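Tokens in:
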């Protein structure tokens, strides 16, 4: 079903923004449609009141990028354009809704690949304009954090969140629904990038995380001692380029070594680094709740180790269900809900920001 254009023009839309928001604020339930196209997943979701997922449709491009050994930005943008309409139609169908039932539209506007971001962002703006409802842009990393609200209905800030994806590795203090404090982050490679590069070098597939994880399950995590990073910067910062290079060198110099042992030893070292710093930051800043977010948070060893260490230290652990760890639009709709609740909406002139920082407004 095509979107019905009500004849609203951009000037009128802008002039009526406050009135639109006000009439929305009077409603009991908010159904938010969101788009997520920051990397290689084309996704649209409808979420009610931030936590009830009515539909979450994801068109994965993994098969295409797998043949290149990583995401090709131009290919990703083109595929998003090809997929976005059918993803939206399936989303509306899955939710059993009409377009008139949507109260606001959102999209990720950064960080991510600029050409990819622009597809979801423009789809969201077009939908908001044609439905004459508020539009709000969300930060992809904040959306990853918000995935926890969907999976743990009782979770409320403050808590500490380890955010681990293909491009980011951060320890974030979530002070309130829209207030984030960056406590530490990687000084070079993201941990997900290390998983992806090592998987490629081992001749496994893309994205590397799930391949490394299943190889590691058959290997000995103590077989090879890889180095832990020594950092001169902040106590809660990370560095994964040294570990990645050590593993890549080991692969080149030990052609007959067991792939499973290499995967297990690398995963063990990376996970211990992530967990040790997260728990120690939680202790230092007095957080009683720890959460994890982002694609790497789907890692079983990371989840188990975080759970064990949180329990040992009297803290409660929250992790999103697997589908909400990797990129999806439901988490973006959740982030949009809390932004709107906070009285924030955006103009249709909003641009994509590929290097948007967490907490940046
Ligand atoms: O959050 P995400 O889907 O996209 C970005 O925002 O980057 O994260 C993708 C990253 C990839 O590096 C992928 O290898 C990693 O998440 N990943 C995993 C697992 N599943 C996905 N890493 C470790 N173990 C997994 N099970
Ligand atoms: Zn992501």
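Residues out:
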């Amino acid at each position: 079903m095509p979107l019905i254009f009500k004849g609203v023009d951009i000037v009128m839309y802008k002039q009526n923004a406050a009135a639109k928001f006000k009439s929305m604020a009077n409603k009991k339930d908010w159904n938010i449609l969101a788009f997520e196209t920051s990397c290689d997943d084309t996704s649209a979701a409808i979420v009610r009141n931030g936590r009830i997922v009515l539909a979450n449709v994801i068109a994965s491009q993994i098969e295409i990028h797998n043949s290149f050994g990583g995401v090709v930005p131009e290919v990703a943008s083109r595929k998003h354009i090809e997929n976005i309409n059918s993803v939206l139609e399936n989303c509306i169908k899955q939710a059993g809704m009409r377009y008139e039932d949507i109260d606001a539209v959102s999209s990720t506007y950064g960080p991510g690949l600029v050409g990819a971001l622009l597809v979801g962002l423009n789809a969201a703006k077009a939908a908001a304009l044609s439905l004459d409802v508020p539009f709000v842009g969300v930060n992809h990393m904040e959306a990853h954090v918000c995935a926890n609200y969907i999976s743990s209905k009782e979770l409320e800030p403050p808590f500490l969140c380890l955010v681990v994806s293909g491009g980011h590795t951060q320890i974030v203090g979530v002070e309130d629904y829209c207030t984030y404090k960056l406590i530490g982050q990687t000084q070079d490679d993201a941990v997900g990038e290390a998983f992806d590069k090592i998987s490629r070098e081992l001749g496994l597939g893309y994205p590397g995380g799930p391949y490394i994880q299943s190889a590691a399950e058959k290997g000995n995590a103590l077989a090879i001692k890889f180095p832990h990073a020594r950092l001169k910067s902040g106590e809660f910062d990370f560095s994964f380029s040294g570990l990645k290079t050590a593993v890549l060198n080991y692969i080149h110099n030990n052609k007959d070594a067991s792939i499973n042992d290499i995967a297990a030893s690398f995963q063990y070292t990376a996970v211990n680094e992530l967990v040790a710093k997260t728990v120690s930051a939680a202790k230092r800043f007095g957080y009683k709740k720890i959460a994890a977010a982002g694609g790497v948070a789907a890692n079983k060893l990371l989840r188990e180790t975080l759970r064990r260490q949180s329990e040992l230290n009297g803290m409660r652990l929250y992790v999103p269900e697997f589908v909400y760890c990797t990129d999806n639009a439901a988490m973006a709709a959740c982030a949009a809900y809390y932004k709107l609740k906070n009285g924030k909406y955006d103009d249709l002139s909003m641009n994509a920001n590929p290097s948007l920082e967490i907490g940046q407004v």
